[in-house]
From TrEMBL:
GO CC annotations, alphabetized: cytosol
Protein name: ATP citrate synthase
Pathway involvement of the protein, from the record: Carbohydrate metabolism; tricarboxylic acid cycle
Coiled coil: none
Amino acid sequence: MKELFSKQTQAIFYNLHPEPIQHMLDYDWLCRRENPSIVAIVHKGSSGLHKAFFGSSEILIPVYDSIAEACKNHARADVFVSFASMRSAFVSTKEAILQDSIRTVAVTAEGMPENQTRELIRLAKLNNVWFIGPATVGGIKPGSFRIGNTAGSIESIVSAKLYRPGSVGVVTVSGGMSLEMYHIISQNSDGVSEGIAVGGDTYPGTTLLENLLRLHSYPQTKMLVMLGEIGGKAEIEVAEAITSGKITKPIVAWVSGTVASQFNSEVQFGHANARSGNDQESAQAKNTALKNAGAYIPKSFNELGKTINDVFTKFVLSDKEYKEPSQISPQLSTSFRRPTSIVSSISDDRGAEPLYNKKEISSFVSRSIGFLLNQLWFKGKLNKVGEDFLELAVKLMADHGPAVATAHNAIVTARAGKDVIDSLIAGLTTIGPRHGGALDGAAKWMLSCDQRKISPREFIDEMKNKGELILGIGHKIRTSLNPDKRVLLLRKFAKQNLKATRYLNYALAVEQETLKKKNNLILNVDGATAAIFLDILKSSRFTQTEIEEIVDAGMLNGLFALSRSIGIIGHALDQKRLKQGLYRHAWDDILYM
Ligand code: ACO
Ligand code: LMR
């Protein structure tokens, strides 16, 4: 059978739980892995980056809103480690199992309904996915990969020598007891080759036997250790596999719960499946069945270490081909960890040549401003149409004459003797909901109307009832008879470059309604830019959550500010060039009351 884990294993972690994520990364570091095992985190409703330590340096792990998106971007990640709650575990695990790239899922959630687990088991088998859990800490492949919190603290891992592989394949029911087993094994053999805790539910994703057979098939497994529990027939299946010759390597086994015979009535132990039901499911009966089949059974749990030692010495050490595990020392130097105060992911000036989104600036010499904006604003995720659109928008919104608020403020400021920067700032401060700063708000209602599936008329009435103006609609001088050329050019671009323009279509349908009231209530340059950019984001690789985050972050108003800065600076320089003196508004243009 193909191994599930290696030193190169890449995993997707479900639910942003910083502690187990850090524990996995600490284990990677301890084992001297070259790269962290967690390459992506999925957390519903989130996106962005999660900061964690790999050794003493910080790394950023991408966070995705959906499992499909994470798998698409990390096709080499074949392990899904789920810290989903009992409520969300079914849906998320099912989705993970159905992804082509996922080969192993490990689910820690406790209390999953049995019908849900059984359905997941069916799907996992159908899709050739190895399912570990639920209700388990998971497992560990020493030197390679650790699932979540398996094997406890770093100190405990070091003392059980779990940072390097040994020869003993271990399968337990209990996650808590697996740690105890790893310690016993480390003291009585050359250590663990892989350890899996299948979990204490009645229907584990994969059984004791399935995991034992898998470990049995690996050449580095020289012997097996199984720790079962009272209740169920899983250990009997193992005894049958020994009898039928499916398990040929030496196996030490113990079924715990022998104390149940001291009680007069049925006893339910900690795990769902650990009940003293009929006699065949008692710990004594199962230990006897295993012993009769040929497994090595100690007299009591206390003697388990000695039995492991005896079997290891007799069968493994005596083997002529036996080699000691390579003496990799654990990498412990993680003590100096200083969290950084600033995270930045778009540029770097530390090398010989500055980088924009990991690209040398010399490579930008021949590229467009749209390309540059894509790298610095979108980390290169926007498509070519998006780049061309940004370039066009920057050109079209750069200036609109000296009469508009931005230019006017800059002119007055420059004439008061202030420098270009102050004039620029003065101009920029006028950008807001009435002038040039309506793009974000326009995009918000477009997204909301689309989601709520309301008609343009219903939307207009809704706004009227609230007494609010529709951002992106209306102009001081442009009308349907005297249209805004910039809007026409933007629409032409959309028509020529986009297959689908659902946001623009909706915005134009709103305009049709508002024009019935007055002919200056056109879709203005802010509204048209917002609508078309939403259509572009939709056609790019952005998820709906990412699109909403871009809008909420204020990117669109930022685009107007960027573009208009060109014009504002122009006006400030113009006033200086024309040597214009201090401006004073004319008395006759003021109504004194
Ligand atoms: N939504 C709904 N009704 C509107 C809107 C609107 N966006 N704009 C004006 N109206 C209404 C007015 O309330 C008024 O109604 P009333 O006659 O019942 O009182 C009527 O339409 C006529 O309004 P005007 O006075 O002609 O509009 P005005 O010239 O004052 O406003 C402005 C123009 C400021 C652009 C306005 O339409 C507005 O605030 N729009 C929303 C903000 C916006 O998109 N700004 C960006 C403009 S483009 C740029 O700056 C680059
Ligand atoms: C602009 O681009 O500044 C405007 O469309 C506003 C205006 O009144 O011209």
